[in-house]
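> @MW can you paste both from yesterday?
MW: sure, first one:
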Amino acid sequence: MRTLTAPMSRPERPIPETPAPAADGEAVRSEVMAIRRVSSAALLGDTDRLIIEHQGRDYVLRRTANGKLILTA
């Protein structure tokens, strides 16, 4: 006989607040907005492969013929 259990619920994460406008009208940067954004073209340049070293291991970021990106160890 199988016993069914309810799935474990994930703890709720706080929703980031919308940054308040500064005195000059520009939004104040929040931690969420501070994530770096880099284009794949800036990373790969004219090549289709890039080796990324992370914690002593090499990973290959590759652009496929369909323009998708694949990261492999």
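MW: second:
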Amino acid sequence: MRAGFEVNKKVHVTGPMNMRLSPKLKQRIRTAAQLKGISVAGFVKAVLDEAADKAIKQHEFIELTYRDRVAFAKALLNPKDPSKRTIKAAKLYKQRLGL
């Protein structure tokens, strides 16, 4: 994941987002909103939110899958000994779980 970027973090954008739409598209959006029983603004926000989530997840899945696969293969082929700090953390974890 890129630094400073969190998935699924809700960000409040203030102010309008202006764009030009064809009359045909505007009417389709109105019709879709009416069919859903919600306002045009509510419909547009929901569709944009869903599309943004999908685009971000697709991008990160592809990017992270390759990176994770490489890191996993390297870890399997060249395992490192646990550090003193890791061993201490594991012992503390087992103590807390009563293992």
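> thanks! Confidence is low (pLDDT under 50) at residues 1-5.
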